[in-house]
Design a protein that fits this description.
- 7% of the residues lie in helices and 52% in strands.
- By secondary structure, it is mainly beta.
- The strands form five sheets. Strands 3, 5, 6, 8, 10 and 12 form a six-stranded mixed beta sheet that branches.
- The N and C termini lie far apart (62 Å).
């Protein structure tokens, strides 16, 4: 009599898991976590410290960085920033430095990049590669900015609307240098000014000349009686705000 395929698969999976030790990850620090290149200093050092018990193998590259309206990171190969060394091994407890520099002139608008740092698997035959451990490899990116000739930091909240039970607005960077949105607050009020809904949203980078769009679905309870919506954003370039009054149908259900 043949055994069911599902039971055989389950047995093999259990045997596999019994022979695999707990997954291992490398522990390391990278400093700084943000790099700004300027006319006075067109190069910088990135310091990597290996805090694990195994050698750390890394591959580094630089890409130009853009954003979609929904905040997605868009990377593209570039030769405007160079770094050395692109491959390195950091021994346990060791600190290594990577130098990077701009080989393109500053312009009227800030340029943005990201260092892509990828951990490589241990070399075959090394103690770190021995055994039945699952190795979890780290990948991280670090922002790099090339300052404009003259910095202008400004922004606005635009296109605030409430339609079909969705509150929509954009945070636009109208300057030539990036800013960071620390927190966004949305408040909806009724006919007498009483608060009917509040939302707190975490922000992120808005690159020079870019925008970040937010679409917030509202429940039937939040929409009921809604007559006005205000948005306030705290940024490192200053506060931003917007307000709209709604027609009698509120959320437009």
């Amino acid at each position: 009599m043949q055994r069911p395929v599902g039971r055989i698969f389950s047995t093999l999976l259990v045997l596999f898991l019994l022979n695999v030790e707990e997954g291992r990850t490398s522990t390391f620090n990278v400093s700084p976590l943000k790099i700004v290149l300027s006319g006075k200093s067109s190069s910088a050092l990135l310091e990597i410290t290996n805090q694990s018990a195994d050698p750390l193998r890394l591959q580094l590259s630089v890409s130009s960085w853009n954003q979609s309206p929904t905040g997605q990171i868009l990377l593209r190969e570039t030769e405007e920033i160079i770094l050395f060394p692109p491959l390195l091994t950091v021994e346990p407890g060791e600190k290594r430095k990577v130098r990077l520099g701009a080989v393109t002139p500053r312009e009227l608008t800030e340029k943005s990049y990201r260092i892509v740092l990828e951990e490589l698997p241990p070399l075959a035959g090394s103690p770190a590669a021995a055994g039945n451990q699952i190795r979890v490899l780290t990948r991280m990116t670090i922002p790099v900015f090339l300052e404009p000739v003259k910095q202008i930091a400004s922004g606005q909240i635009a296109d605030l609307t409430v339609r079909q039970s969705v509150a929509t607005f954009e945070i636009r960077n109208t300057g030539n240098t990036h800013f960071i949105v620390q927190q966004i607050g949305l408040v909806g009020t009724g006919a007498t000014g009483q608060p009917l809904l509040t939302r707190q949203i975490d922000g992120w980078y808005v690159l020079a000349g870019g925008l970040r769009r937010y679409d917030l679905p509202l429940s039937a309870e939040e929409c009921r009686g809604l007559r006005a919506v205000s948005v306030e954003a705290q940024t490192d370039a200053g506060p931003l705000s917007a307000h709209i009054d709604l027609p009698g149908e509120g959320c437009g259900r």
